Amino acid sequence: MTPETVRPDETRTYDVVGVGIGPFNLGLAALADPLPDVDAVFLDQRPGFGWHPGMMLEGATIQVPFLADLVTMADPTSPYSFLAFLKATGRLYPFYVRESFYPLRSEYDRYCRWVADRLGSLRWGRRVVAVEHDAATDEHVVTAVLVGGPRDGTRETYRARHVVLGVGTTPRLPAPLADLAAAWRAGQAGPGPVVHSADYLPHRDALQAAGSVTVVGSGQSAAEVYRDLLEDVHGAPGRPGYRLDWVTRSPRFFPMEYTKLTLEMTSPEYTDHYHALPADLRDLLGREQRGLYKGISGDLIDDIYDTLYRKSALGQQVPTTLLTDTEVVAARHDDGTGEHVLTLRHAQLGREAEHRTRAVVAATGYGAGVPGFLDPVRGRLRLDERGRLDVTRDYTVDVAGRIHTLNGEEHTHGVTAPDLGFGAWRNSVVLANVTGREPYPIERRIAFQTFGLPDEGPGGVPEAGREATEVAR
Ligand SMILES: Cc1cc2nc3c(=O)[nH]c(=O)nc-3n(C[C@H](O)[C@H](O)[C@H](O)COP(=O)(O)OP(=O)(O)OC[C@H]3O[C@@H](n4cnc5c(N)ncnc54)[C@H](O)[C@@H]3O)c2cc1C
After folding, report:
1. Sign of the C-alpha dihedral, residues 413, 414, 420, 425?
2. 32 partner at 20 to 30 Å CA-CA among 156, 249, 300, 404?
3. With 90 as the cut, is the pLDDT of residue 11 above it?
4. Would the pTM of this model clear 0.90, i.e. be above it?
């Protein structure tokens, strides 16, 4: 039976339909909530908010200060701020005494759920499958399918002037590991898990029970998984120890850079500068700037060293190898031994070696793409020669400037794209585009340094209703 299609709000055309409710669209929902001229609804395929559950490691903190919550950088008086959450949940004084700018990851997740519970514009359990453009009314028609529950499979349509993409990024595995992971999921590569770090926690027990685990990757997630597994490498009550190896392509286990003049690159004016550069140069810079936000927090690197030191202090060999400059170039499963066999290539030596392990965690990052549900409006999208969204400085991706992206613009805007600290600023720009005014002040200059040559200044974000060419200093 073809699932029915319903229009929950028959006559309504929203100003905004948001697709995906991660921190960025949740922040947009919270900032839009008090605005009388913004009628918005947000759809997410999941049953409720949950922030990276596979990496919700105990004790892990977020990498940005608590001011980088959903709303404060746009509106410090918002009732949806992290401080408001702490006050409402009786945790303000403990947070004050703790004297750390960096909330626990679990706390940030709880905060987002607290905000989500207070917003009436969120619709969970809805997977968006198509965005179309109705030329007659010049509106977008967003179709979602209900996921789970008695009406599973029912299709709903929503009409909207603006569509905001907040679908986040998806786990990426290098081809050899992607194939091995697929074989493992299909039950054709033995019991030892081969998973992306996004799915780490649900598989932790099986990884530790496998007898040997190899972590592949160079960033914060790889380090967190390695540190978590290192704790019980010699075994724990009721569980034997295991071998633990860490392989990274990077020339060293490099720290994320937190120095203040570098942090000024997480700014509107550096984003103006970056966005105005030719695409090839942006791609090159993007690779070079990995250290800014794809490295490992310095504290964690030292904690790993100290843990290795502590575990070897009693003369017990720590069954681990840490390899840099080494890439996984091939992977297969050996049915005979039950092992996964990784072919490693050392970049400087130019030589290869076989590495046998019984389980793999690929902490190999995430990537954004052009969501399939945009196919019906592909002709209206701005795409670059590599088929990526050619995102304007004020975050739109279509010719009419009414489809916006949050965190799908790393290749055009650089380091600010995935940064929680920049979410509220970007949302202020989107709301300015939607309302034709600036409901939240948009800072155009925050840095002491100048990017590019003095007083030359690239386009920057236009004042609401004014062309992009003017530079507001
Ligand atoms: C483990 C981890 C820790 C991080 N920690 C930090 C940090 O401390 N500081 C920082 O600045 N950044 C951090 N980041 C980077 C970034 O901020 C996060 O990835 C953040 O979650 C991105 O938010 P988002 O709103 O773009 O998307 P996501 O959080 O990925 O959410 C996207 C949502 O879209 C939904 N969705 C996707 N497709 C559809 C569809 N077709 N229909 C309906 N719903 C859909 C998904 O269900 C999901 O709920 C971290 C990233 C990871 C992986």
Report:
1. negative
2. 156
3. no
4. yes
468 band by pLDDT with thresholds 50, 70 and 90: very low
Whether residues 204 and 353 share a domain: the answer is: yes
Q: Which residue, by CA, sits nearest to atom 4 of ligand 1?
A: 62
Strand bridging mode 339-346 / 326-334: antiparallel
- Do 158 and 33 lie in one domain? The reply is yes
Q: What atom in ligand 1 is closest to the CA of residue 373? A: 41
Rounded to 5°, angle at Cα 294 from 292 and 297:
80
Instruction: Please report the pLDDT score of residue 18 as a whole number.
Output: 98
* Band of residue 38 on the pLDDT scale cut at 50, 70, 90: very high
Reported as a single tens digit per residue, the pLDDT across 129-178 is 999 999 999 999 999 999 999 999 999 999 999 999 999 999 999 999 99
User: How many structural domains is the chain composed of?
Assistant: 3
Question: Domain check: are 287 and 430 in the same one?
Answer: no
Pick the more confident residue, 6 or 427.
427
Res 301: pLDDT: 97
Closest to 214 (Cα-Cα) out of 364, 54, 53, 365? 364
Does any ligand 1 atom lie closer than 6 A to the CB of residue 407?
yes
Residues 80 and 106 in one domain: yes
Is residue 277 included in any domain, yes or no? Answer: yes
For ligand 1, pick from 106, 115, 199, 420 the residue to mutate: most ligand atoms within 8 Å of CB: 420
Ligand 1, pocket-test mutation among 69, 407, 410, 415, most atoms within 8 A of CB: 407
- The H or E element containing residue 28 is helix 23-32
What is the C-alpha separation between 355 and 339, in angstroms, rounded? 10
Q: Are residues 11 and 81 in the same domain?
A: yes
Domain that holds residue 465: 260-293+445-472
Span from the CA of 135 to the centroid of ligand 1 (angstroms): 32
Phi, psi of 92 (to 5 degrees): -65, -45
* Residue 440 falls inside a structural domain: no
At 258, is the pLDDT very low, low, confident or very high (cuts 50, 70, 90)? confident
Do residues 65 and 101 both lie within one domain?
A: yes
Q: What is the CATH number of the domain that holds 176?
A: 3.50.50.60
DSSP 3-state assignment of 258?
A: coil
**Judgement on whether residues 304 and 408 belong to the same structural domain of the protein:** no
Distance 268 CA to ligand 1 centre (A): 21
Same domain, yes or no: 250 and 282 = no
